[in-house]
Design the sequence.
């Protein structure tokens, strides 16, 4: 025993040398212990076992072998036998036998010897690479050697020649010399488990440090070599599974100290790895740096499937919850004030991608409800890291759409708790969470202004409970002011909490404080942009730059809605300094005006008409524009010209984000990353579009675009093309490896992200360009991609606004699916083929995406034109689109096809199958209904500007109309009882008309009137194209033989009368068509003259406007009537037709120098003839003609005055120039007509007053009274009757006031006309008159409604005191017809019990301060004129 270390080795580390004293012998040690502990029964055996265990733990086997065998043994060391080279070639049994022999010689257990020898060999293998020590993986040679060694170890273990305990203890001694892969292989090959190794190590901290170091190296080196990547991933997975199992499994069988130590090691290692990763992220590691790779690969272990099948589901859930807690509570050093100030930098897009990936992985295994509950628990029980908490909230609302509602509910609960208990913590949490969620856009959470207004801007707000809650709210908001970003202060000022008036001081104090803070920050509320998003994270923009952006945005909104944007109107009233100083100068930048006004010019004109542009500023702008062509002013458009790189850079970043998203779609392993990529796309998209209103505050109720000429700005088209191309490429990439039903929600989320309301008009316009105008040129991949996009947009129909199809077609609002149907034209061969491809692609994609969906659900998800039975109605719509000049069928082939389809396919088919049940009338009715719809649709319009051609030049519909004419002719040829007229239901055509008219909106607003006029124009066009017998039916069998014209008369009296542009007559075409029908009925009668007289006599009482129309067109009508009658009936005209000729001659004779003929009856017919003669004459005065005896009839003059009033109103409403003198033409043809009509009215009025004929009754006509009332009301359009108050006060200068005051009905009529005039003005029905008066200076005193109301008021105020007592007797009957309520004027007039003087005082007092508030562009004009 020459080696001095031998005794130490034999004695082990328990010799006491560690304490610095001399080393005691075994005898001394045992003697001392025996002295202290007396030897009892069994004690000797226990001591022997303890001594043996101590020796085994601290035996130095190599030194012992040397001591036993002497120095010569060194040349024949057992390690050579067990070495990697020897063991590979030697059998396990031979090695085991050698070990057994050697152990016998040494007198030590063979298991101990084998364990120590195996450890020594493992250390040699780990050190044999010769590479740097900072590695954890074996190379190929080392793996081969270790594999052979482990086979020997397994043999020894199987033959009880191997001690796990000794092996673990030896490994712990040399753990720093071991490679992690070698230890892992010992575990997976069941040599010794990792928990056994950790249990045997007394120093837990050392074990944790070793594992942490090697795991970091493993994560760093995982992707260093592709041949080791799979092994490294498997190693990491096994280690983490073991850590999670031992650290988070609740097992009642695991008791004692050792299992607790293992759990402590597992939890500590996991926690140290997480802390390392979080601290590394805080430093912002560079991509692909070693630290970045380490964190990235470690976060990869948080994958739910990694733990599947090996442990119960509760274990990883506890682990993930614990990890989330550790993340949220890591280094809670940030205060709430820091969070308020900095949270805009913690949005999803600005959070490190590795941290958001960790959040998403943690979310994958926990339900949204569990996540929210855990988040609440952490916030309530721990100090938190606000940066991690708020970035977690952002990730939650972005990546888990189902959690968005939960976040809203949670915030509401926090607010309720905060105000219930004045809980400041809940208040802070609610505001921080709401602001953080709002940063992610309106698709995830309402914008902060909207949320703040919804929470505190109404009487149901959380703060409205008491003064205590109000004080709590404003104290909280005031405490936030020093830390608030300007955006939030602006939001609080613009959308303040609703506060009762008695607590108003709380709000004003806060607003003053907030404005002071904004002033300190050099941010002005007055200079805030119109479309600044106060919830955005961007910085405050300079006023001039912001104004230019506001102008561009306002023009865009104006293009899409056709109205002045609400934000602009509000700014012109409430934020006038910014509006006048910044917005208007940016809008009115001088430029060369285009020949055709563009959107900018249209917006400027709309603002000017609304009095939103000061006249001086507008005049300066016009003058500058006129000279802009000569010399373009410098800096004419500040901010308009931008560096090309500034424009390209956002587009480039957007393209890069879209490429990354496409890569994620194409990689199934990145399915969890799609939401993150979409969030990045959304952020880049916002950067491209620039500042603007968010989707929730835009208030876009509809999208307006032109189908004939859809237009986009260059940048808008580039963005749309980029997004559409990306969608098509994504679809092709995703479909290349998985079918549509297993692709996940990427497509729907992409559509939701890129087709928000702000970008929706752009996308729809581009789709219109591509599908409607460029469809045949699209490639197959584009057709498939766009079809899929249309399917997803149609599925979102409830969340999308209607599409308003703009001119040239009449306005029409369509839901998005029906809008897409309108983009598929079938007019030509090429477009038909494209539509078939597109429909097939859309249907195929829908079926592949949802193979198990029902047919009804499929119908609801697709545009209606893509998938349906081709019913008779649908077939007609398609046929109407065919353009004959581009038809692939010849005219005869098309005729044959249409005849076959109608007569053989759809006519006999049952209605349930889309047919007509064999009813020809049903086929005609459906055709008429479809034809009218087609006439209103944009499909029937082209570039033609001719308003008389209702169908434009789309001649395809004329073929279908010919089929209608043929079917109507067939009905006329059939038996009387089966013809088109049924006694109970009437003619099918008028039945269709009635049904459609009943469905139209009523009222007198401009939109309703224009819609009705458009409908009636189509009705008239159809009537003129069908046989005239439709208007005048066949004579009835009974005597006298009178044809039935009731339905036509009803249509004229109720509808066509209102289309009269001539005041009291129908148009020539419908008039001559009626008389052709009359002659046709006469030809079927046994007494033609009697039939004609009966029909025309019925016209006098039922439809008098037919006769006045005949008088107007008599010079063109009479020759045709006489020729037809002579050729058919060989005799003179019937008596009633002769009466019309006599009336026409009477009218002409009254204006000639000769004596006038006596007027034929009735008087209104003669008056109409005279009126038309006066209109056709060039005379400017008819005073002398009115004095002729033939014109002196009171009733004739009264009706003539009525017709002249209608002529006066027509001159204002309808352009009409005929035979004006040169002096009158100087002021314009329409103004000349108005002046002439006014003079004629004045002369007839003077004649009536001279003859003391009361004419006031003309302004109080009703259907109920007898006499002239019902007749005159049927002789004028309803709009003219409604404008009688305007005509009444237009004649003020012609009134004989003294004579009028003596009339009992004067005051009643004058006040009634005044009130009705105000109602007309408020309703905007005097706008056409106002437009004419504005254009003509000669009419400004007569046609201007504001001036007219002023004159009427002065006239009444002067006349009321002069009225006799009896004039007040019927004032109680005066009731206002104002839409805005009861006027104080009529309330005062109704106080009949008041004495006359008091009544006068009331009238004069109430006529001055009118109790209504006008709306529209004429506010200031009226208020100034009315003396307000």
Sequence:
């Amino acid at each position: 025993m020459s080696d001095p270390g031998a005794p130490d080795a034999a004695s082990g580390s328990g010799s006491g040398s560690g304490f610095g004293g001399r080393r005691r012998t075994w005898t001394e040690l045992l003697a001392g212990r025996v002295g202290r502990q007396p030897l009892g029964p069994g004690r000797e055996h226990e001591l022997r076992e303890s001594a043996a265990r101590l020796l085994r733990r601290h035996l130095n086997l190599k030194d012992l072998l040397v001591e036993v065998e002497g120095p010569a043994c060194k040349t024949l060391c057992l390690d050579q036998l067990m070495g990697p080279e020897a063991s590979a070639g030697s059998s396990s049994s031979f090695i085991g036998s050698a070990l057994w022999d050697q152990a016998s010689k040494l007198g030590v257990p063979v298991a101990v010897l084998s364990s120590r020898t195996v450890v020594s060999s493992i250390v040699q293998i780990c050190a044999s690479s010769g590479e740097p020590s900072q590695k954890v993986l074996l190379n190929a040679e080392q793996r081969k050697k270790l594999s052979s060694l482990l086979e020997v170890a397994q043999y020894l273990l199987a033959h009880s020649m191997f001690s796990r305990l000794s092996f673990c203890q030896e490994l712990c001694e040399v753990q720093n010399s071991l490679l992690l892969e070698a230890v892992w292989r010992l575990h997976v090959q069941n040599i010794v488990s990792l928990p056994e190794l950790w249990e045997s190590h007394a120093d837990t901290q050392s074990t944790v440090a070793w594992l942490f170091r090697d795991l970091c190296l493993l994560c760093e080196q995982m992707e260093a070599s592709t041949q080791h990547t799979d092994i490294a991933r498997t190693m990491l997975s096994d280690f983490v599974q073991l850590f999670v199992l031992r650290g988070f499994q609740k097992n009642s069988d695991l008791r004692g100290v050792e299992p607790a130590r293992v759990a402590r090691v597992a939890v500590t290692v996991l926690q140290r790895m997480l802390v390392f990763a979080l601290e590394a992220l805080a430093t912002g590691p560079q991509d692909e740096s070693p630290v970045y790779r380490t964190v990235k690969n470690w976060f990869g272990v948080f994958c739910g499937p990694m733990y599947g099948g090996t442990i119960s589901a509760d274990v990883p859930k506890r682990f993930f919850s614990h990890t989330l807690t550790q993340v949220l509570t890591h280094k809670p050093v940030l205060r709430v004030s820091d969070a308020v100030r900095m949270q805009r930098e913690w949005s999803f897009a600005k959070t490190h991608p590795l941290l958001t990936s960790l959040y998403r992985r943690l979310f994958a295994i926990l339900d949204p409800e569990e996540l929210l509950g855990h988040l609440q628990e952490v916030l309530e029980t721990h100090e938190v890291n606000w940066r991690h908490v708020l970035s977690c909230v952002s990730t939650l609302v972005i990546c888990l759409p189902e959690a968005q509602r939960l976040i809203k509910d949670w915030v509401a609960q926090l607010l309720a708790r905060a105000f219930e208990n004045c809980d400041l913590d809940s208040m802070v949490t609610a505001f921080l969470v709401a602001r953080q969620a709002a940063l992610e856009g309106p698709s995830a959470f309402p914008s902060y202004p909207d949320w703040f207004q919804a929470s505190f801007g109404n009487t149901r707000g959380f703060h409205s409970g008491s003064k205590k809650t109000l004080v709590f709210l404003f104290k909280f908001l005031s405490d936030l002011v020093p830390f608030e970003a300007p955006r939030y202060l602006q939001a609080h000022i613009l959308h303040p909490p609703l506060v009762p008036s008695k607590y108003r001081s709380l709000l004003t104090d806060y607003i003053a404080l907030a404005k002071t803070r904004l002033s300190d920050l050099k941010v002005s509320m007055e200079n805030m942009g119109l479309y600044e998003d106060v919830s955005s994270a961007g910085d405050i923009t300079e006023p001039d730059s912001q104004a230019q952006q506001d102008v561009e945005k306002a023009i865009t909104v104006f293009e899409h809605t056709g109205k002045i944007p609400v934000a602009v109107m509000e700014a012109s009233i409430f934020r006038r300094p910014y509006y006048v100083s910044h917005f208007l100068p940016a809008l009115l930048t001088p430029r060369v005006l285009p020949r055709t006004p563009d959107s900018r010019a249209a917006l400027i004109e709309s603002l000017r008409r609304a009095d939103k542009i000061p006249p001086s500023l507008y005049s300066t702008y016009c003058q500058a524009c006129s000279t802009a062509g000569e010399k373009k002013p410098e800096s004419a458009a500040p901010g308009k010209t931008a560096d090309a790189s500034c424009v390209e850079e956002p587009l480039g970043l957007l393209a890069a984000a879209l490429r990354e998203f496409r890569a994620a779609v194409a990689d199934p392993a990145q399915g969890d990353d799609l939401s993150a990529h979409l969030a990045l796309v959304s952020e880049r998209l916002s950067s491209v579009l620039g500042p603007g209103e968010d989707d929730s505050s835009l208030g876009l109720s509809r999208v307006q675009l032109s189908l004939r000429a859809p237009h986009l700005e260059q940048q808008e088209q580039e963005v749309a093309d980029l997004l559409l191309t990306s969608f098509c490429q994504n679809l092709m990439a995703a479909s290349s490896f998985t079918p549509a039903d297993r692709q996940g929600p990427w497509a729907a989320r992409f559509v939701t992200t890129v087709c928000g309301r702000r970008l929706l008009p752009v996308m729809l316009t581009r789709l219109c360009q591509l599908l409607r105008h460029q469809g045949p040129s699209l490639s197959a991949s584009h057709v498939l991609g766009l079809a899929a996009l249309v399917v997803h947009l149609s599925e979102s129909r409830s969340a999308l606004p209607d599409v308003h199809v703009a001119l040239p077609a009449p306005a029409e609002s369509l839901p998005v699916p029906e809008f897409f149907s309108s983009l598929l034209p079938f007019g030509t061969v090429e477009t038909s083929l494209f539509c078939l491809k597109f429909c097939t692609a859309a249907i195929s994609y829908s079926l592949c995406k949802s193979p198990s969906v029902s047919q009804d659900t499929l119908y609801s998800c697709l545009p209606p034109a893509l998938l349906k039975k081709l019913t008779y109605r649908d077939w007609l719509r398609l046929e109407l689109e065919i353009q004959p000049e581009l038809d692939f069928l010849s005219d005869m082939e098309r005729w044959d096809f249409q005849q076959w389809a109608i007569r053989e396919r759809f006519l006999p088919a049952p209605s349930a199958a889309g047919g007509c049940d064999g009813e020809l009338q049903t086929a005609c009715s459906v055709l008429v209904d479809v034809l009218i719809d087609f006439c209103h649709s944009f499909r029937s319009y082209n570039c033609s500007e001719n308003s008389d051609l209702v169908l434009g030049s789309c001649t395809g519909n004329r073929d279908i109309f010919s089929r209608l004419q043929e079917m109507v002719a067939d009905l006329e040829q059939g038996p009387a009882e089966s013809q088109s007229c049924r006694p109970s239901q009437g003619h099918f055509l008028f039945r269709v008309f009635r049904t459609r008219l009943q469905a139209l909106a009523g009222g007198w607003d401009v939109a309703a009137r224009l819609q009705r006029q458009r409908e009636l124009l189509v009705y008239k066009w159809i009537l003129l194209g069908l046989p005239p017998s439709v208007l005048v039916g066949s004579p009835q069998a009974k005597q006298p033989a009178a044809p039935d014209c009731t339905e036509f008369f009803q249509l004229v009296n109720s509808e066509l009368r209102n289309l009269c542009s001539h005041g009291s007559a129908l148009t020539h075409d419908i008039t001559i068509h009626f008389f052709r029908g009359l002659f046709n009925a006469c030809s079927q009668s046994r007494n033609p003259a009697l039939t004609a007289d009966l029909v025309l006599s019925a016209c006098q009482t039922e439809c008098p406007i037919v006769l006045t129309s005949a008088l107007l067109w008599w010079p063109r009508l009479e020759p045709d009537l006489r020729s037809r009658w002579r050729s058919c009936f060989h005799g003179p005209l019937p008596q009633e037709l002769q009466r019309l000729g006599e009336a026409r001659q009477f009218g002409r004779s009254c204006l000639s120098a000769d004596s006038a003929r006596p007027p034929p009856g009735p008087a209104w017919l003669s008056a109409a003839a005279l009126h038309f003669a006066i209109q056709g004459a060039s005379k400017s005065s008819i005073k002398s003609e009115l004095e002729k005896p033939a014109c002196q009839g009171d009733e004739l003059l009264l009706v003539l005055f009525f017709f002249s009033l209608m002529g006066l109103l027509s001159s204002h409403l309808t352009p009409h120039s005929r035979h004006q003198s040169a002096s009158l033409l100087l002021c314009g043809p329409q103004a000349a007509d108005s002046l002439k009509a006014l003079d004629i009215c004045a002369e007839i009025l003077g004649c009536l007053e001279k003859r003391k004929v009361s004419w006031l009754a003309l302004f109080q006509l009703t259907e109920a009274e007898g006499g002239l009332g019902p007749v005159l009301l049927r002789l004028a359009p309803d709009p003219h009757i409604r404008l009688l108050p305007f005509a009444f006060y237009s004649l003020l200068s012609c009134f004989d006031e003294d004579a009028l005051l003596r009339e009992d009905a004067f005051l009643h009529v004058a006040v009634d006309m005044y009130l009705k005039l105000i109602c007309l003005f408020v309703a905007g029905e005097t706008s056409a008159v106002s437009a004419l008066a504005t254009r003509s200076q000669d009419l400004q005193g007569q046609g201007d409604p504001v001036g007219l109301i002023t004159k009427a008021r002065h006239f009444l105020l002067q006349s009321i005191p002069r009225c006799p007592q009896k004039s007040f007797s019927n004032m109680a009957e005066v009731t206002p017809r104002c839409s805005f309520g009861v006027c104080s004027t009529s309330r005062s007039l109704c106080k009949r019990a008041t004495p006359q003087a008091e009544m006068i005082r009331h009238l004069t007092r109430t006529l001055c301060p009118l109790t209504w508030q006008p709306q529209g562009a004429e506010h200031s004009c009226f208020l100034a004129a009315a003396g307000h």
